[in-house]
Queue: 3 jobs
Job 1
Amino acid sequence: MNQTKKRKICFVITSTIHYARSKLILVKLKKRDDVDLQIVIGGSAILSKYGEVDKWLKHDGLDVSAVVSITLEGGNNVSMAKTAGLGVIEFTSTFEKLKPDIVVLRADRYEVLSAAIAAAYLNIPIAHIEGGDVSGNIDESVRHAITKLAHIHFATNEDSKKRIIQMGERPDYVFNVGCPGLEIAAKNNFKITNRIINNMGLGARVDINKNFLIVTQHPVTTEIEMNEKNIIETIKSISELNIPTIWFWPNVDAGTDRISGMLRRYREKHNLDRSVLFIKFLLPEEFISLLKKTSCLVGNSSAGIKECSYLKIPVVNIGTRQDGRMRAENVIDVDYDRRKIKKAILKQISHGPYPSSDIYYKPNSSKKIVDILSNINLYIQKKFNDDNV
Amino acid sequence: MNQTKKRKICFVITSTIHYARSKLILVKLKKRDDVDLQIVIGGSAILSKYGEVDKWLKHDGLDVSAVVSITLEGGNNVSMAKTAGLGVIEFTSTFEKLKPDIVVLRADRYEVLSAAIAAAYLNIPIAHIEGGDVSGNIDESVRHAITKLAHIHFATNEDSKKRIIQMGERPDYVFNVGCPGLEIAAKNNFKITNRIINNMGLGARVDINKNFLIVTQHPVTTEIEMNEKNIIETIKSISELNIPTIWFWPNVDAGTDRISGMLRRYREKHNLDRSVLFIKFLLPEEFISLLKKTSCLVGNSSAGIKECSYLKIPVVNIGTRQDGRMRAENVIDVDYDRRKIKKAILKQISHGPYPSSDIYYKPNSSKKIVDILSNINLYIQKKFNDDNV
Amino acid sequence: MNQTKKRKICFVITSTIHYARSKLILVKLKKRDDVDLQIVIGGSAILSKYGEVDKWLKHDGLDVSAVVSITLEGGNNVSMAKTAGLGVIEFTSTFEKLKPDIVVLRADRYEVLSAAIAAAYLNIPIAHIEGGDVSGNIDESVRHAITKLAHIHFATNEDSKKRIIQMGERPDYVFNVGCPGLEIAAKNNFKITNRIINNMGLGARVDINKNFLIVTQHPVTTEIEMNEKNIIETIKSISELNIPTIWFWPNVDAGTDRISGMLRRYREKHNLDRSVLFIKFLLPEEFISLLKKTSCLVGNSSAGIKECSYLKIPVVNIGTRQDGRMRAENVIDVDYDRRKIKKAILKQISHGPYPSSDIYYKPNSSKKIVDILSNINLYIQKKFNDDNV
Amino acid sequence: MNQTKKRKICFVITSTIHYARSKLILVKLKKRDDVDLQIVIGGSAILSKYGEVDKWLKHDGLDVSAVVSITLEGGNNVSMAKTAGLGVIEFTSTFEKLKPDIVVLRADRYEVLSAAIAAAYLNIPIAHIEGGDVSGNIDESVRHAITKLAHIHFATNEDSKKRIIQMGERPDYVFNVGCPGLEIAAKNNFKITNRIINNMGLGARVDINKNFLIVTQHPVTTEIEMNEKNIIETIKSISELNIPTIWFWPNVDAGTDRISGMLRRYREKHNLDRSVLFIKFLLPEEFISLLKKTSCLVGNSSAGIKECSYLKIPVVNIGTRQDGRMRAENVIDVDYDRRKIKKAILKQISHGPYPSSDIYYKPNSSKKIVDILSNINLYIQKKFNDDNV
């Protein structure tokens, strides 16, 4: 009898949000008999200040195959670029050791680009989730560069699928499976409590059973000189509104140290501690549960565009970071301008929940991804396709 | 009075062929008063076994701003990937020091990808020469990934220009300027001699004033296990033909050590020294001058597709490395099969020179590139464009 | 006439304390006509959370020749080791570019080891300040390893000079010049004020014109699992004493993130904000001025052993980090034990200032170092010497 | 019953000569029930041009735990230094993954220093073989730097043991076990044949059953500008002697590309192919067997000082590379001077075999090393010892 070789699928997790959106995929892959699941964690996902993803994986019964420690200090463009370089070196050693049949990557960060380059030069086929989206930031360039290195594409919406094909990818390897993060959001039953939230942060106590805002504003790496000036507009608008607010610290991108610095300095100067609770991170299910309770999400997180479109949450999206991403009607876009931000927040609060949109949602996203990863024919040599344009 | 700031244009040279094709651009940039030319050399271009480009630059009166030493030994996929990673780190430090306004890159090698990533994360606009081409090898993926990180595109032919625009690049920043290497080939007046050639190599003496072949066959990184088997077909066909031949050693890509090993072993076994002169590299003007004299170029070099189309040289292109690249009628494509290779070579010899083609040629390529680099408005934040599709 | 070539002396600064102790040397080197001073900054010295040394240099009129950005996030053993590795790579590129005649290094940190290795393999003679000391921590091993790579040795005390010679170094290249940091401390006229101090930190207001403690306790990298447990003893003793205290955050060594985490958590739990002001860093002259005013320095900083011996300050030295370093009578050594710490602090407060010791002090340290660096004959090939043992 | 945890002993092999001298240790460690042997290979040992050690290990039934690919191209000081830096990064990841209880290193090369630094910062005790020797080259500095990072020392002779203790190491952790390479030489029964030798190389046929010389001359990294000039003296002396000679290519140190270049160029010019067979490498047992048959070993290899002292082989040691190493009477030292080299070779040939010396030999070296590695109490924190001086 012929014993079929298990397909070795290597899932790379370099940020906590990646894990938050991928958990169902991992759990399903682990259950399959024909798959040997390898999980590689690294980058900011393993740093204590951005949430240590190894603890979450352990909690969910998932094993780690390798840890890739590559993040440089600095929170600036140089540290971001060098982290990418060190990432290529370390992912190369890691993939050479693990010898996966496929490497699965998500989104558009520099650690993800590192892993893509390592896999590409080692002739390992790449599956890429969330390609084809458009946005601002350096992520816009990097996302499409990764698409051009990848072999299998899991777009989260129809527009992105079209763009991926337009860029010359083989149509039979491009799938619109919806955003796996929304499937998780849809199924989430976790009940967040005041106790959990208020033990996690610093600053004011916030009662999440009453009206409250969530703010999460990341640096824009292509506007590096403006990040401080821009965050002040948000700080002042929140200070002046004086509504209970839960504020998440920014991610590891270039500019993060400066934004964090502004937050620390202005916390006191503008009395933010009166109304604002500062939190570093929550577990994915906690975050989704909290999101469902907020009156309005403010900032420039992709969760505002994606998760909130389905969860009906009003969103005030500030600045250029999400430029061009397909939106449902739950989003009001505003400039870096405290008066406009304030006005938009008040408008969203008075509007309340929106109808649920399915532009990013499809049922069974994770099942579809897992089925394709497990069964699709793999190829190495890419070929530009322009038949469908 | 207002003193205009000079535009700092940083030209990156990581392979000798890059210099061979870019010399006119560099010389013209250097002469401009409004440009501060920075030349960064590195990668295989600075290694003695692939030709030390610093000596060529010195010879041509061009100064080097920085040297980037990054190439790992091994000649395999791991060394190629790690070189790319180390390259990102070192180009980041270099660009951070030089602070150029534009970085100019050419083609599709891993060192070029390194430089592109470094520049992208440092928010330095990238100009890219020779994007949009299609081919085999890992270069195919990497070339398009670089396009998605770049801001200004100098395509060498109309098809490539269309592909670049199709991939979502701004049409007003995509230019078909022809291949600058062909402009150099067209203007080349150097007269190569038997003395030069026969002093450079090992093996048989070849009289370049009579019929002779040139062979240059590089490894295909995506067919790594097949490279040895494939090169043997070429070795045997050349051995059996027993026509005077000048054979260039392969480049630094993964697989090169194995191909070189085969050449060394088979040189003796198949009596190649009877008819074959082995050469490491020639100066660009020497190579073009030699090319003009050959009866047929055999192998998988892009010079066969590009330079030879204009220079009327018959070419036997072996295998997949140039798959998909636009061809003039001078090329016969064959598989890795000694009989087919032999047959094609004999056919090309008896055919003799082809009509000159201008699919890759435009007059004044270098002037056009220099004018655009010096004057075009620069931007940082990229935006996917699909208006023109 | 014969024009003498200037000697290129490259001073490497990778921590703020290094600059604090070396400023006079730099200022004197800069003034010499026969010296071309190169200053390379990098490592934790350029990170905002450990004090940005470039601003200090600018303030003091000193130019930076190169910036070396190498520090990995994590605050653990892995990040420390990888930073050392990246440091070797980047210092190599930097020295290759600057081509110094001598590289000057201080002390025993991993970034310093990096620079030593880079210089050693590039055949650049190394001058090393503060070698020969003994202590705990990984620094103990690294300090002596650097000695064995160095060519000129500036010991800060007689015992260390003897140890360096015992290790096989040439006696005519080993000099006891005293600790240049103490010369700076001796000459310091800066007057620190309540206004400066209380604007720099978070927590309680401290009146520095009354009794107050300074605490500065760094992680011990060779006791990595114990650092949290050990710091708690200090936290509790300070909490129980309830004396006004200025507490400096720990340095970048492995374990720092955990110690910082403990401090953040326990600040609230043990009411540290009642009596403790937390400060990240002060300018060197500010720190010395503050030191002169404290009733007692508590923790494991080398300043307690060195600067305080001369400045008469009572010191409670906790744990193993300074094990074996020569002490004056101003130091009481205690275990990680809150009762012993408390008892020792109270004893030191009631004792008051000690007689000034000159075990680490010599007048004109900086002048001696500068004269030797400028004039000594340089050699490359080292040779083990055992004549003097 | 209490199950004792196996001690994880990690043996690092970065050059083929390291394996050649360590094989018996590895075989014995593998057989022990209380030891979990980990073998890490890397550096030049895995490159095809210096002998692929993985094939030798496989042949000897030893498994590889990890491969560390770090060597940069260039054969110069920069590539040597950067390889060291990349080595620190990769050995850190490797040791972090393998979590050994001891890391075992040998000798003084840059890859070995890398591994020592990685282990030191990860708090893994280091056992070091062949410390305490003196020599020329950068190896002299690096060897002692490694000693100062190591915890257990296996000196190969009494002088070296004394030096290690003098440098401040604990005497109870310093052992003179003799050179394990000599134990291998002593036990070697392999019979080398003309067929093996002449199939391995290029150039003249050499009959090893008659008189013949062996030449092996490595670059001296601290005399980098002189290496070409120096090797010419040897080339000319061998050319003029016109005695059958087996010449081994130099190792990977800085300067190797230039020496190899000279050899290639002069091979023809000085008719070396008349009498010289060039060989890249032999298996350890082949090399020892060949050594026993030669009339004289010429060059600067440590085998001339160590293995040949016991094997009675006459040696002409050229230049500074072995300066200071303890010698038996079998060695004649000469400068880089063709006449002196010729004269010394002729003198050694006419002298014939010397009495066997045991200055580097002790029976059961490998058993002693294995027993100590398996049983000795381990410690992390080092402390300078000067009791015994």
Job 2
Amino acid sequence: MTGPRITPLVASLPATVPFVGPDAHMRASGRPFRARLGANESVFGPSPRAIEAMERAARDVWVYGDSESHALRAALAAHHGVPMANIAIGEGIDGLLGLLVRIMIAPGDAVVTSDGAYPTFNYHVTGFGGVLHKVPYRDDREDPAALAERTAELGAKLVYLSNPDNPMGSWHSARVVTGLLDALPEDTLLLLDEAYIDFAPEGTAPAIDPDDPRVIRMRTFSKAYGLAGVRVGYAIGASPLIALFDRIRNHFGMTLTGQAGALAALADQDWLAQVCAQVSDAHDRIAAIAEAQGAFALPSATNFTAIDCGGDGALARKVLEGLMARDVFVRMPGVAPLDRCIRVSAGRPEDLDIFAEAFAEALAEARG
Amino acid sequence: MTGPRITPLVASLPATVPFVGPDAHMRASGRPFRARLGANESVFGPSPRAIEAMERAARDVWVYGDSESHALRAALAAHHGVPMANIAIGEGIDGLLGLLVRIMIAPGDAVVTSDGAYPTFNYHVTGFGGVLHKVPYRDDREDPAALAERTAELGAKLVYLSNPDNPMGSWHSARVVTGLLDALPEDTLLLLDEAYIDFAPEGTAPAIDPDDPRVIRMRTFSKAYGLAGVRVGYAIGASPLIALFDRIRNHFGMTLTGQAGALAALADQDWLAQVCAQVSDAHDRIAAIAEAQGAFALPSATNFTAIDCGGDGALARKVLEGLMARDVFVRMPGVAPLDRCIRVSAGRPEDLDIFAEAFAEALAEARG
């Protein structure tokens, strides 16, 4: 039997995944995590109002969710002071990244990002046949000047910037981001991934005209809002671009539960502020834990902290393995020199107690 | 400003959607539906065990759902007696249709379906640049002989059959489906959409070797299981084809809530049987309602009934408009001669009381 004829593009794709999920790690070890600090989830949970809304939704799930996510888009439009026509909803930023790449990238098209930046974006670019061009980080931050230069050289259609950054937790001021925008060729689209913006200091999120055709911003309910498990992200961009999502997306793909949860979560900004305060406390604690072992924590505008273990990638890898062996879930950057660090999500005090002990042991072991 | 450079393919796509959602209809009228019988949702709801599981999940949604949907795939594998490697999970059949088309169809590739069959499949084929070739229904059923003939003529990669059928509710025996499979070119893939199979009589679902590379079957928790609002579908196919979904899908796209709900729903087969009994009662009632007005109901192996209004498409369209004006949500087939019918989802007795009155009025009005 010959089997189905798949496209040459899909046949060429590697059988790798952007991330091995926490559940897969637990299945491999046969044990639950004692502290789950690897996926930048919010262990502080979502607003109790969001939980209530999702509990109520559980009885109503015989109906499809609104295919236009109208109530949620209207609330987001009001929240951001932009028209609804400038907002697209998707199954997390991951889902929106796939759609945006599909809208823009044909086989052979050049795309620019940073070496070590978000793997799932790269996965989608590769998946649609795009050619990734990567510029190095500079001083543990994505490098706007290098991104602009490489983009201009290539005439690239699309350039990716995460601000604040994942996996380092670093960030640029709003002024630097708008400077990048002005430095890019006029027909290049800046994909500004703001998954972690809720944790960033004032002055990080630029004021951008929502109808500026040069940029699309993406945000999520998976991080500060604590709703990773119901998959809700959104994009803010010029309405002609936003309208294109409707030509290709899975129209009934947004769950009733997720829409209800996100709507309630958005309305509870007090909860968000409280989570951000807890994350700030966690940063301080993680920094102290690192310092106590002669390592150090990088500044962070996110809900995670990169800890420089004080050696190279091999040392950090050993520390990570030691933590995982102790059922403490963390991750680490994929490329040098970022990979001298491990990446630890903000935890509750009890999570960080477990981390502190395991980190001390793992680091001592790794140092031999 | 020039704006972003989108692909010629996406630029060529029409700005239409496969279905206007029920919520959009309600926003347009400004009133809620009195009976919601248009989207083949299960008004009988999901298993109470599924509701409980989703209520519990509401507290846990700060974590991402398992990116491998391992527990659900394992349960489905046991349920169907096939290996896990033969099962892919997706955001409803709609999501899986998009992925399968992406795996197989490059611009210009021929795809065969029936004229009047599921629009969302067509939407995805068009979305990836495929060229649809449609054969007519025969006696209100998809026509396997015509599908096989057209597929062979074209050397088409992919052919779609829904069994039982939507929008007519008709069906073929398992023997006819396997006959189609044997009549197709060996390197054509049969996409067998079994969204409604849970309602069909014994002998409708063919026994197919899960490793048969000539066919992929798709099923859903949105219909008989009553979980439309959490988006869970699955495909059963040969493991090399199933593995390709992992190269392109949104790996963290399945919600925690949906996975928990589907797992609990699958375990409650008694609930499923009870829903099917209620659907059977609804068919009888809808047939009686139609007959009382001099119309008649077509036989159905689904959770909806096509009612032949006794005229042409224009008459049925008036009946549909009359029902919608009375806040009774139904739909109708899109092409002649199927469009002499309206399509009414199975309802509870109280839903069908409302339908009965509105249908009598709408039909009388339409007849003038």
Job 3
Amino acid sequence: MKKIAASIITIGDELLIGQVIDTNSAWMAQELNKTGVWVKRRVAVGDVWDEIWNALNEEHEKSQIILITGGLGPTADDITKPLLSQYFGGKLIVDEGALQNVKYIFEKVLNRPMIDRNLKQAEVPDVCTVIQNKRGTAPGMWFEKDGRIFISMPGVPHEMKGMMTDYVLPELQKKFTLPTILHTTLLTAGIGESFLADHINAFEVALPSHIKLAYLPNYGMVRLRLTATGDNKETLEIELQHHFNELKNLVKEWMAIDDDLSMQQAVGKLLIKKNKTLGTAESCTGGYIAHLLTANSGASNYYKGSIVSYSNEIKQSVLHVDEQTIKTVGAVSEETVKQMITGALNILQTDFMIAVSGIMGPDGGTPEKPVGLVFVAVGNKEKVVVQKFNFRFDRQRNIELTATNALNMLRKFIEAEA
Amino acid sequence: MKKIAASIITIGDELLIGQVIDTNSAWMAQELNKTGVWVKRRVAVGDVWDEIWNALNEEHEKSQIILITGGLGPTADDITKPLLSQYFGGKLIVDEGALQNVKYIFEKVLNRPMIDRNLKQAEVPDVCTVIQNKRGTAPGMWFEKDGRIFISMPGVPHEMKGMMTDYVLPELQKKFTLPTILHTTLLTAGIGESFLADHINAFEVALPSHIKLAYLPNYGMVRLRLTATGDNKETLEIELQHHFNELKNLVKEWMAIDDDLSMQQAVGKLLIKKNKTLGTAESCTGGYIAHLLTANSGASNYYKGSIVSYSNEIKQSVLHVDEQTIKTVGAVSEETVKQMITGALNILQTDFMIAVSGIMGPDGGTPEKPVGLVFVAVGNKEKVVVQKFNFRFDRQRNIELTATNALNMLRKFIEAEA
């Protein structure tokens, strides 16, 4: 089967000076991939006429589908709409549907008067199919030229996501006979990428050409992904599952999760299965573990809350960590995190507890307790396990690594319990 | 002065199936921009020989500097190093410095034995200048060809950042006479992008051609950025400041911050100035506000901690929200967030407090209390202010909007206090 290739073009100076991180492209790539469209390239260009024009020409040469986001705002630095009109040989006209939508948003949603600039948002080139925007004022545009499809959408993430889901992906599925692309993923912890690669080398070499293995190292763990491409979904699924089982068996010693889940999702799944509750007592992670857990819808079924004891006063007054402990061995110590577990279990009344205390940097380190030193405790009323870590990264990464490792310790603790 | 243009090429299938969000490019663009290098394009390609080769050829045509990240791992899907060797007409040899580094990392840092695959990491094309990697095993490579500079670095963020800061940026500054690029930024809240654009239209039109205005809407707020390009830093600074003052004056009614700071950084700055402390009581944001505040180094000077009362039991048992209140008006109500403020001020003993309770979705909404309904309270022992919000987005965005608006409410509360 012939692969259908797509290019993603993102437009905006903010992407080229690094003021904004491009999360749109990742989301679009994920969804296109699931639909069976192969994303070949992603290109970001600034709000510069020639740059955008050239990017359209170049990606036209490379892909059948060209998705464009950004540059559709009502301000002067947004030049994409007139450019597209000229590129496809059209002229700008007011689209009645888009106009009604702009009026509706101002009258009913924003509840404020419109100005001329807002009405301009309803203008589209007369050579496109309009994609109505249910979440904002800028309409999307669908162009066809020389057998290529060009789709222009706003850069506002939830507006773009709405258009993709409601219109673009279903239409692409109608237009093309797309292959089936299937992924299976597992997460390993406690083994380096190169060792893993050595360990499963024979497996990788023996894979058929339409099934590929990828290594995705992150936060000191390595995710392994198998990707299969084919025509028949049923047989492909069976084939992929066969190889995935073989892989799981090979890495079982280090396997944390046999699914494409984050560590916090895996912990949540486990807690639901066991019908148990969790709380956290966080010093150095400052609420980040609580945030990761509550970012998942349905977290209230197992996650009760956190005492973020960023200051030592709160460690003492709320968690009842002994003043003497902090004076003698310090807030970053095995003894402190153990006492945090006890205190937090008492106050939050959950089945399991995570407690962390450490030095995230860049300041606050000493020769005895350098930046990156972290104590993590996990436990319940009967038992507490403590582990000491020495991370060597920047503040953000130290926080992320502490959180992921703490969740992995809890996962192991719960699994060992049963 | 001639602009020096750069292209950034990121390599890796994970970027094209959306498994990883590209944060490297944004950071690199930011740093290059500060140095005076204009980032013209960013391109992402997969681990495919022809795609990488073509991207090198194409960006060679467009930019003087081509920065490449990714594809340098020790596993079979990383093909960048042999490709670069062939592209620049070299052959792979072991670099003694890189070899010593790999050995050092395994012996002293990781404290585990090496395998052949790790030694491979020390191989580099004999036509490059090696950039030693102090944070990992894969060396960077600097190539020059036809007056173009190609720099290949690992995709691991902290390794790439280290190489950029220690070597790449200083070397680029030596090689090129770079223009001065200056930015000033302010943040507005409470006014839409199109209204703002209308309001400052005359100002924008009157700007000299080497000073540009950009609108960066995010989280319901609009950031305005002035960018000036020139040769003489001193005169450019004065000129930019003049226009920035004019802009500040025009938007003073909506201006939240006259600096390129996040809302949490602005709140931190204000608290330090007033020598006051802050705590949070979070339900629906689940620790996200605490995380935003503690992501800043030095937060312990003003931020004491949080009670993440995700469950109603904890709202009652720890924050002493009245059981009757929750039964009659519910946990998502003005009365509840008010009581959360009082309870949390008592237990955390801070000067100021933020409390939030809402329904983040996708589940949990009712006709009376739909998804997106949030109550935010900010206050101190004397006074509490409550605001009701109706956000209409997905879970993640609702959490982010709640956090940013809560911090902005606190900022206004503190400023009104003085």
